[in-house]
């Protein structure tokens, strides 16, 4: 399967950030992997214009479960698609923490994304307390079961394993720990979706940098990365793209 390097800009970036995208496209006109950048909603249309005709895809960072309506400040999946997005990150741990998003809500948003033709990048991951308590596999299994609706396919669904304690901290699980979780995710998805699960891309996210990317990508069942901080600079994200 083609691997995926996905960048999550979070609440970072104004028009000046377009120069980084221009630099990324110039340096990686034909990458071996699929590239995805998920900027703030204000930049989706401009990044989509820049990326037109290139190997770079553009995504949102969240969408509402409803198609439209009285939801001030929210964005519908169809609006993301209309702006030029092909993907949307859903259930990121910062959304789960800052907005109390539940697995049920993430599943509803995922169905809304699919109804609009967007690929959902569904995030799961344990807290540090959960890892210390030895419940990591149970936690990610429960999140997977609750957040991914029936109907998931290799084409419409990407799973991102992001340990909460590794995001933005410079810390990562050990390579065997990452491999253990990814094997568990693949087995859990296969039990539910059969052979289709073999083609679903499983991304690792949490302090992926140029220095650790190659080792992480060499692990079985790691089909790419969801990258936060290191996706903001073309040189760093480009180095991660080149490692895939
Ligand atoms: C993220 O925001 O999804 C993420 C993985 O962040 P970072 O790479 O900065 O840890």
UniProtKB/TrEMBL annotation:
It comes from the Bacteria. One of its GO terms (molecular function) is triose-phosphate isomerase activity. Its EC number is 5.3.1.1. Keywords: Cytoplasm, Gluconeogenesis, Glycolysis, Isomerase. It is an enzyme of class 5 (isomerase). It catalyses: L-erythrulose 1-phosphate = D-erythrulose 4-phosphate; D-glyceraldehyde 3-phosphate = dihydroxyacetone phosphate. Substrate binds at residues 8-10, 168, 207, 228-229. Pfam families: TIM. It is found in: Cytoplasm. Pathway: Carbohydrate degradation; glycolysis; D-glyceraldehyde 3-phosphate from glycerone phosphate: step 1/1; Carbohydrate metabolism; erythritol degradation; Carbohydrate biosynthesis; gluconeogenesis. The active site is at 92 (electrophile), 162 (proton acceptor). Signal peptide: none annotated. Belongs to the triosephosphate isomerase family. Homodimer. Involved in the gluconeogenesis. Catalyzes stereospecifically the conversion of dihydroxyacetone phosphate (DHAP) to D-glyceraldehyde-3-phosphate (G3P). This is Triosephosphate isomerase. The gene is tpiA.
């Amino acid at each position: 399967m083609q691997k995926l390097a996905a960048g999550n800009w979070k609440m970072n970036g104004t028009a000046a950030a377009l120069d980084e995208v221009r630099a990324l496209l110039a340096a990686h006109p034909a990458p071996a992997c699929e590239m995805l950048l998920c900027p703030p909603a204000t930049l989706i249309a401009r990044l989509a214009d820049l990326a037109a005709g290139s190997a770079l895809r553009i995504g949102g960072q969240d969408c509402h479960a409803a198609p439209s309506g009285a939801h001030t400040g929210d964005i519908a999946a169809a609006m993301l698609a209309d702006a030029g997005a092909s993907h949307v990150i859903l259930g990121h741990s910062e959304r789960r923490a800052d907005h109390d998003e539940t697995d049920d809500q993430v599943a509803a948003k995922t169905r809304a994304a699919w109804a609009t033709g967007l690929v959902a990048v569904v995030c799961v991951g344990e807290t540090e307390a959960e890892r210390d308590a030895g419940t990591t596999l149970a936690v990610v299994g429960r999140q997977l079961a609750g957040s991914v609706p029936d109907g998931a396919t290799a084409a419409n669904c990407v799973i991102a394993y992001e340990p909460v304690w590794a995001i933005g901290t410079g810390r990562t699980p050990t390579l065997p720990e990452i491999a253990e979780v990814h094997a568990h995710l693949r087995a859990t998805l296969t039990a539910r979706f059969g052979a289709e699960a073999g083609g679903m891309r499983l991304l690792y996210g949490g302090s992926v940098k140029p220095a650790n990317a190659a080792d992480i990508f060499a692990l079985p069942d790691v089909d790419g990365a969801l990258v936060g901080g290191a996706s903001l600079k073309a040189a760093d994200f480009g180095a991660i793209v080149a490692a895939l």
